Amino acid sequence: MDRTTTGAAVTAQVSPAAAGRADRATTGAPAPKTTADAGARGDPDPLRTAAARVLHTNWTGASTVPSRGLYPHQWSWDSAFIAIGLRHLSPLRAQVELETLLRAQWADGRVPHIVFNPSVPLDAYFPSPDFWRSATAGRAAGAPGGVQTSGIVQPPVHALAAWLVHLADPGLSRARSFLARVHPRLAAWHRFLLHRRDLGGAGLAAVVHPWEQGMDNSPCWDVPLSRVPPARPRTFRRADLDHGCPRDRPTDLDYGRYVRLATDYRDRGYGAADRGPHEHRGDFAVEDPAFNALLIASEHALARITGELGVAATARHERAERLTRVLVERLWDPASGIFRCRDLRAGPAEGAPVAERGITGLVPLLLPGLPGDVVAALVRTACGPHFELGGRTRLVPSHDLLSPAFDARRYWRGPAWINTNWLFERGLRLHGERARADALRTALLDVASASGFSEYVDPYTGRGFGTRGFSWSAALALDLHLDADHASAHHTAGSCGSERARHD
What we know:
The protein is built from 20 helices and ten strands. Helices cover 43% and strands 4% of the residues. This is Mannosylglycerate hydrolase MGH1-like glycoside hydrolase domain-containing protein.
């Protein structure tokens, strides 16, 4: 892809300082640290005030860090989720959030999973810019010269975020030509995934590292990762343990495998020579249902963006519908009522399904084109013994409660996350499961505020783990709280066992 199309900077028509002024105008004075503090001071909307404080604190002037300590740079899918919440406080700042991320896009279309802040010391986070070496190792793939990034990607939520941000203030969006400027970058990003990452040859995008899928430490990766020899322990230093309890974080063995995979991918030039199915030579390649569902949802959003720009969008809608059919044909497991990951480096030429059940297999509920029987089965699975939504769990856990690998507090091996529950709530609401969606929304808001907008929580108790004041937890709680589509939220959920899924 021509660098002038995808690698050049997105020129914002507003300075970061102006965006900061606009944000202060909408959020007001610094807010109390918790909703309880805000309520004690007589704040009429304590959740909004506390969430706004988190997003204000983590704002750098042009983007929002997930947290100041543990994650001091800009993360790709974090910024998409953050923009969705920011649109309720400052549509301008939400637009700048996405524009800043897309400024780091590579010429081949990929949006890197981390954009590094040069003012942050190298030892504050690992892997740091000197590990990724994007300007040199990524040169053949078109890494930008003016900013340091990682070389892998994260789930493509960005077109969905851009469309929702546009809807928050269409007048401002049109005045700034926001959609016209981000559209070519988003289209190039999707082309990269649909062509360069179709490693299985069936049309779905594959991830080449657990960090790309976003649910880094999921037991779904245990078997695919077992083939990867770990990096030697003394060849890297885990900065995450400076801010997080080792009991809650990935093990050293798993982390060593993550480092080995990233090192190998970097040393092959970040896949610059890969051109089609089966050309990626790495040890890890997985077709993941959540990653592809988010790509399909963003294809639908990109079609709406195209239509807003006055261009026919039929072909893009048709592509999204075709990808939905492929997702069902390739990853749906009717016997267990869930979508499965496909390990492309296992079994026969087409790969083999992964046995573990993760929330990644429930996320496709957010797609509008799912067959009715698939929708009904996903709802039964979420409410059944493996996830217990509406039963013993307050939120949908990240992994199967009955799996020997389940751990209620270790990173992505069981805790509930606000973003995956936000996605599942959208899916329930889309398919007519209003009572269940309302109940989940209420639980999400309660848990997010009571936990201090924690990074992740115990799915049974709601106790927070990881870092607090986590940006996407605050942003998505804000979205659920302020979005008019959720105004009638306080209803009692029906029985999971007796109520059949309804769909539009």
